[in-house]
Amino acid sequence: MSKARGPYSKGVAKREEILRVALEVVSENGYHNTLNRDIAERAGLSPTGLMHYFGSKEELFIEVLRARDRHDVATFWDPRRDFRGFLDVIAHNATVPGLVQLYIEYSAEASFGKHPAHSFFIERHERTRSFMREAIQKAQYAGELGPNVQTEEAANLIIASADGLQQQWLLDPSVDMVAHLERLWDLIRAGSWADEKSPLVQEAQAFRQ
Amino acid sequence: MSKARGPYSKGVAKREEILRVALEVVSENGYHNTLNRDIAERAGLSPTGLMHYFGSKEELFIEVLRARDRHDVATFWDPRRDFRGFLDVIAHNATVPGLVQLYIEYSAEASFGKHPAHSFFIERHERTRSFMREAIQKAQYAGELGPNVQTEEAANLIIASADGLQQQWLLDPSVDMVAHLERLWDLIRAGSWADEKSPLVQEAQAFRQ
């Protein structure tokens, strides 16, 4: 960021501090219980002062989601970028329900084209999908997954399941998100080694016609 | 409904009409672009008159979701209650983005305990899960699925994927929700026939240790 040089650097540092504080407050209180005032107070600012750094509550929260992704990728994912790293992120999510609420809420809002989170979620989905494709291919090179994987569809299914499971988990915290995603991976693995020419599988496929 | 008898029946009929109208308006305009005024107008009521039948916008929209489920189950699902019926509901969803928006928005809101949609989504999830377990068992009886299915987890994965795919589809209408869910079913099928004792599968499993 070019703004990090010269007279702007103090502002950039304060922005970073606000994001760190906002991440904490949302993790502790959840999205719906977080007021601008709470974040401003903990960052030693007035609510108006806070809005000097972020134009709107939406902009602030999108930056919170972005900061969270950076943190998760740095801590759990990079440079391994494999499925285990992804599961580590999900396991970590189970410790920060407030952030999962924010993520679920904004990804729903993003589906309405006019919400400022729209382009953030489009880009995020593309990035996650490309990570996931890499993870699948890496597992194929390693021999963990066999040759029969529809990589694009499998990647979308993993991401869709992770999103849906986070929603189920918010409704019922006993849902084990990681165990379910491991199961999905097992299914992808079973499909990847399935011999589509075996009589059993052909017989089963006949039901689809 | 006992209210359908006697002096209440006219009110019940009007309520039904409002729900029908609201379903139409949300299907056409989407959730975020639907005002109470639009629904009231088309039902021949004032906004205040509308609120006489439904205490709040939230209550009205939860009833819209309930009416939509009744319609979908009657049209696509009952009495077959098999996976194909579920896919028919999803294919139908792709023709009513406004309702999918409403569903996604309210299921996100429902994850905050205090929202009036909370108990609706808990009950709905339990019902969908029990349908899905039935669909899996039915496919096993029919010989389409083999013996190795973790029914509970598979049911949750299908529901989670369907929810997550609807979100992906709202962001990118080219996502083929039905094709992805058919792929997931194929994976469950592959897993259901997988011989966990085969050397290939055991070798692959060793990667998990």
From TrEMBL, chains A, B:
PROSITE patterns: HTH_TETR_2 (PS50977). Keywords: DNA-binding, Repressor, Transcription, Transcription regulation. Gene3D superfamilies: Homeodomain-like, Tetracycline Repressor, domain 2. Residues 12-72 form the HTH tetR-type domain. InterPro entries: BetI_C, Homeodomain-like_sf, HTH-type_TetR-like_transc_reg, HTH_TetR, Tet_transcr_reg_TetR-rel_C_sf. Pfam families: TetR_C_6, TetR_N. The keyword DNA-binding applies. Residues 35-54 bind DNA. It comes from the Bacteria. GO terms for molecular function: DNA-binding transcription factor activity; transcription cis-regulatory region binding. This is TetR/AcrR family transcriptional regulator.
